[in-house]
Amino acid sequence: MSAKFRTPQPPSQGASLRDVLAYWVCLHRVEKGWSQERLALESELDRTYVSAVERSRWNVSLQNIERLAAALEVEAWTLLYPPGGGTEHKHGFPSGADDIDI
User: Fold this and answer.
1) pLDDT of residue 89
2) Helix H or strand E segment including 20
3) Helix (H, G, I), strand (E, B) or coil at 10
């Protein structure tokens, strides 16, 4: 029998970007039903590194954020968007976020 993954608690308002990143990575991983080991394999990162990211232990390079986002099939910027930041839809992203011109 496989272990049931726990959905993470959203970071508090004003949390660091490391905490925000940790939340989204863990949430997306749990939603996929993946272990940290599976995410590590999919993103070509070490399992202990993925664990450290989810515990907000390390600063993460942009390259590794891109790897995690690609493995999780999300846009990299969404991993840094604070949840609960205003008018939102699924997963706390701002409504109209798809319409943002950068």
Assistant:
1) 47
2) helix 17-32
3) coil
Task: Map residue 62 onto helix, strand or coil.
Answer: helix
Number of helices (H) and strands (E) in the chain: give both, helices first. Answer: 4, 0
Contact between 10 and 23 (Cβ < 8 Å): yes
Read off the tokens for 89: 């839809």
The low-confidence residues of the chain, meaning pLDDT below 70, are 1-3, 85-102
Closest CA to 43 of 23, 22, 71: 71
pLDDT digits (tens, 9 = 90+) for 26-50: 999 999 999 999 999 999 999 999 9
* Alpha-carbon gap, residue 40 to 44, rounded angstroms: 6
Helix, coil or strand: residue 86: coil
Are the C-beta atoms of 76 and 65 separated by less than 8 Å?
Answer: yes
- 80 φ, ψ (degrees, to nearest 5): -110, 0
